[in-house]
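Example 3.2
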Amino acid sequence: MEGPKIKRLYYSTKEISSLLGISPQILRSWEKRFSFLRPTKSKSGRRQYKPADVEIVKEIQRLKNSGLEDDIISRTIMNNKYRTTSDREKIIERTERQVPVRDIIDELKEIIRILDSRDL
């Protein structure tokens, strides 16, 4: 008896590597080169790729195989007209999350200074 296919929440590096025929080293190098490819990490520090991450890896692989350079691949994926707005927002949000905490603190201090200078 065959039931409905169970959808995975996360995939390991090993699973992605064997599924797509990419070495784990290549996958890790792509994480460094492409800011929008950021898998979450488990409590033990292992990478966990969501299904959306798998789609991004597939797209990078396809574009790499067509001979495109990294900067063109980045722009293509970020501006991909076939990607939904919510996916693009998730990628941008993931990239923005990497803003140093110091920059956020400085920006908040500036906001407080502006608010304090207003007559309320």
